[in-house]
Records
---
Amino acid sequence: MEPALIALIVIALFVVIVLAKSVTIVPQAQAKVVERLGRYSRTLSPGLALLVPFVDRVRATIDLREQVISFPPQPVITADNLQVGIDTVVYFQVTDPRLAVYGIANYITGMEQLTTTTLRNVVGGLNLEGALTGRDGINSQLREVLDGTTGPWGLRVARVEIKAIDPPPSIQDSMEKQMRADRDKRAVILTAEGQRQSAITTAEGQKASAILSAEGKKQAAILDAEAERQSRILRAEGERAALFLQAQGQAKSIETVFQAIHDGKPDQGLLAYQYLQTLPKIAQGDANKMWIVPSEFSKALEGLSRLGGSDGEQRSWLDVDASANGNGAAGEAAAVAAPAAAAQSLDTSSWFDSNLPPAAEQPEAKISLSSIGVEPGLPSAAPPRPSLAQAAEDVRSTPPQIGAPEQE
């Protein structure tokens, strides 16, 4: 190969290398720190940039996006001398690439150590319960400390989160027992409250039921008492009217019998005959072991013998009057007409007039039940019945046929 060709190839390679060193491309969301002869020159933004070959060089490429770093659990002692493991997550972003390169040798390691020491300072002043329940306060304090410390490094701490707090196994067991006891306590309290409320509700229901039952029994007793009172009043009125009518009937019967006896003019013989008919009734009965004949028995026999005609001095009631015992049908008609006239002279129109107001109009029967919400219902008046005087008048209007021939 000729020396000229070799020289041309070397020159071409040199030109390519120089061009490669003179041009650089910066991706989006990244920045490149350029040094010239070992000294900071500038920071390249995204896009195409030109460099001086063999003079300028890219010191570092910095990612400008927000980054997330998770640190492993760190042992931390709380204020009550309990060791817990806490792992954190830090969200940060590089705001100044030059400071991130020249301000600290490794900002990731520096941030990790700063987070560990700050976490121990913050959690060391809290007990275990405060550390477990105060995560928001711990996060805020960590972010303030990290953001203020990493500012000269060209970093901005956006957020710090505690991922987990792991107490010792014995403490975890005790906490679980405490939580179980608290839950059992709440369960017992809730059960007791439920039983109390149930008992109160049941008692209220029983009270209302008893009140309603008592009210119902009261109303029923009042209605029963009023009904019984009204029934007794009406029954008493009926019995009083019945007794009054019965007494009137007996009085009329006695008066009629007494008048009939006086009209018939009975003699000693009739009385003796009636006395003899009554004697067998006196002797009736299974308990009668001995019967004593009364002293009036001989006098009754004497009167009966006179009735038979042994002594003609006294007139018997069987003897017919001469004027009434005439010849032919005239005497018989007179004998029959005498009782008919006596019957016609008997007035029965007022026998069953009690002269009492109806039971519905009695003041005792007018019961006001407005106090219990019941309208009294009294029986209506009975339909009018024909009076006995009218019936007797109808009987008298049809005289008996005396002496009529019998139909064969």
---
Amino acid sequence: MRTRLSDLAEQAGVSTATVSRVLNGKPGVASSTRQSVLAALDVLGYERPSALRSRSAGLVGLVVPELTNPVFPAFAQAIESVLAQRGYTPLLCTQAPGGTTEDEYVSTLVDHSVDGIVFVSGLHADTRASHRRYELLTGQGVPIVLVNGYADDIDAPFVSPDDAEAVDVAVQHLVTLGHRRIGLSIGPERYVPARRKVAAFSRALVRHGLADDEPAARAHAISTLYTLEGGQAAAGELFASGHTAVVCGSDLMALGAVRAARSQGLKVPDDVSVVGYDDAPLIAFTEPPLTTVRQPVEAMAHAAVSALLTEIGGDRAPRTELLFSPELVVRGSTGPVPRH
């Protein structure tokens, strides 16, 4: 116990006597000091005494897609963290191809009497999917919040990044560097974010004088899978047809584009430029470091949880879609158009 107290005291920056008072629930310790000691317990891997554990305000389901795309674990962690700060216990449900479906997870969550559910990039974003499942949930009085993807027939709060602005800043960046042949590598257009990005991309090419009209601009966009392999295939086609820059629908797709360039003997950014989307963790450490458009994950997580807790509390959160501005992060995968 003496070693444990001293370890905790050192980590928290307080005396062992103060640690002892906190662990034994004694008064006379400032709230900030108490929080420092509790944080030290967590950091050093000690279990909090039962008397110090906060009781959960309730359970909240969190349904996210598969975790191979690093942005989804980032969303899950951010939303779980905000829920925990507000006293709720999150139940994480991750979908994998061939695994548990969204509907199966929802059924289980309802059976566990969750207070609400947050859906990230769920079937609400699929324009071909039925929205009946969400109508049934809201009809049962289960508060829901939907992140990434909008459908005006679902009676729930929506939180999304501004997909159009994301494409605009990426294209503007490449045009400033002198690129005139810019392509888009994007996921299936049945999903709302992809559809919005394609539309914004077409408008941007026309606006910058890079295409005569939007149908002509659309020819510079290739729909594929949101994977490294999908990005590689689409970018390979774009580079082969003379494009000097590619805007991608995710960082994984952008890494595929870099691979495609190398397979054609092209250097990034000397010969071609690549822009990703998400700014997932570790993406700054790729070779070259990836220029990308940062999805405002933390701000969106706070907004989603705030809306959900408003609904749980019995008030009605706004039904207008909350759009969050992305941020262009310029690194080493974009450069001036090559002069030949």
---
Amino acid sequence: MALAKISGENRRIKSILFLICCAFAGIFPHLIEPSKNLLPSITLAVLLGGYGLRVVLRDRRENYQLQKEYLFKDENFFKTLPKVDVLVAARDEENVIERLVSRLLSIEYPEEKISLWIIDDGSQDRTSLLLQELSTSFSRINVLSRPLMSGGGKSGALNSVLNKTDGEWLFILDADAQLQSNVLLRAIALALNGGWSGVQLRKSVVNCELNQIAACQAMEMAMDAVIQRGRLACGGVSELRGNGQLINRKVLESCGGFNEKTITDDLDLSFRFLLTRSPIVIMWDPPIQEEAVESFSALLRQRKRWAEGGLQRFFDYWPLLISKRLSNLKKIDLSSFFLLQYVLPVVSFIDFIVSIILFEMPLYWPLSIVAFGISSLAYWKGCSQNSEGPRLPSPNFINILGATVYLAHWFIVIPFIVVKMSLFRKSLIWEKTDHIGS
């Protein structure tokens, strides 16, 4: 079954079936006798909580980290570096485009082995004009312009430049990316030394001190890195996160390129790498730095896109995810992740509605408490570690409590998206996050 051909098929029908299954799971405990109605939630809490605890405890920073000193131990390292294409898809980024170019030019890598590309994807602000001026001033910056509504979103923009480049590796950045000058050397060294097909830099927030929403996003990114590395250590799955991803071109081509039928190219590509047995590693230091969204409304817009793209990939690839392509450990990992990330919010929402109608207590609270508890532990572990990037918020009780409560927004976003996907057809447009140049 070709990966490039199955994406996007019957998503609405699959969403409806998923919603029906979640509705049944949410209603069923209310139909059995009171002495046994907590049994489904307690059983799942023990099984999923046990796996989640194992994941967080198995995370070890040193397992997937290459120290800076490694770069200077091997005299042949710089002579054998592969060619890398640095790609940035930009639309309406006038606030950050000049800073981006400065960051790209500061990357430490042999000039003959690196090419820098910015794809102007139909910008309607001053981005196009600024890129023309910058490419004239700095000959190393290559600019490819696409007309507005060219199609394919960010994936289409990235695909458009592939036939103009020939690097063995692709380093994908967002327009607001801020990075240390030696980050590419260290990511390449980690990839080559460990035999990885992809390296995802830990994401960090440059404006975490702006407000509580930004601080919670900084903690969430640290938590995500802890969980992903723990999943990998348990024989599970780690994923790309879009900004700061280093990927092998041959693997990308074997996957059919970037998927233009999804709204989250990174999550979709993660599954394509997984199904072609191409491992991805998470690098803790140095991180890729980006702006956090600054308001709750902007956060909800961003998370709705992430939730929809995350569900799309499970709906698209589930026949292959349960096939012999994946090991049993990876299937267990994906099942646990899917139940906690997507099923639990929808089932809990339905459980809550039914409990109001029947004047009863919700019945999935044991599982929810365990899920939030595991998240709190991952928050503490992530924010307790040293960081070469922006300072992480202190893992004190107040911060962890606030960040744990903040996670409740997923229990609103995911049920909303499931209903939306069940009722309406999706128009594939690039719903980018606005960057203000923090």
---
Amino acid sequence: MKSTFKLAGNLALTLALAAAGIGAANAADKVKVGLMLPYTGTYAALGTAITNGFKQFVDENGGKLGGREVEYFTVDDESNPAKATENAKKLVSRDKVDVLVGTVHSGVALAMAKVARDTKTLMIVPNAGANDLTGPLCSPYVFRSSFSAWQPSYAMGEALAKKGIKNVATVTWKYSFGEESVAGFKEAFEKGGGKLVKEMTLPFPNVEFQPFLTEIASAKPDAVFVFFAGAGAAKFVADYAAAGLKNSIPLYGPGFLTDGNLGAMGGAGEGLLTTLHYADGLTNAKDAAFRTKYAQTYKLQPDVYAVQGYDAAQMYEAGLKAAGGDPEKKEDVIKGMESAKIDSPRGAFTLSKAHNPVQDIYMRQVKGDQNVMLEVVSKSLEDPARGCKM
């Protein structure tokens, strides 16, 4: 009888250990994705769109990346650089994510990237355009599925100079992305013979624009170039029109000015021209399928932020495939991402040596609730990645 109980006990213990082993194996088979994005505040809609796009690609692949199920760990970064390091470290050290995906605010992204470099954790930036991320602070572990601040703004500077515009005033939030956007525009515009007659900034996320509108009205430049995004951009465009400036001094900017927020402008954005790497009315098959699926799933039309989230997942999938689905083979994942050609809704793109997309930039015009593509103004534009040593 004792032998029988002993055998039964041993069998139960063996089964329990086997079950625990299976559980551990199943957990190890999952890819852990850390989504560190803004879900509240000025950029909340952008963070949600990026998340939707990322998850759409995963869902299209049966809920898997590299053949493995995906487990998400989500943090609201609140667009607050002061909390960025701690939040990123929690995802890496506590949750042990295989990849960090974030973020929108460049100041937050720069802090995240330092954590990624220090811990050798793969990171994909699905929006933040701080030039340093793929410039002096570039890293084998940090990739972008979006753009550098320089790219769309430089393209607009070229375009306005070619139009014969001579004098421009600029306004932006005073933080890295805004200032780098203006710098990219200025570089191209002055190269083409233009001049910046007034450069104005205000603290992020301040939206008290009236003093700047008064200065613009007084200076009477040929045009105004701005960087704003999200709710702040919607308010600036509405205030600009309400001040009577829209019909007398044309307003331009990178596409973030009008992406994802046209409804909030109440028609004030109608006719605005912006430059960006995505637009409504593209004719490639990938975009048509992406837009149809996104609208069905989320009951919304996708914007550039959704595309960048979608492509972040595509890029990681390419890396995992090259590594046989194993996120621990980081060198293979990196090589796979570096050599990938991404079939994006924006149009196919590759990655530069600094891990920034080499991509077309479109001139778009607001028509109703769309940013309609007018033309390609810069073909396969590559960021100069100044200072990157990788």
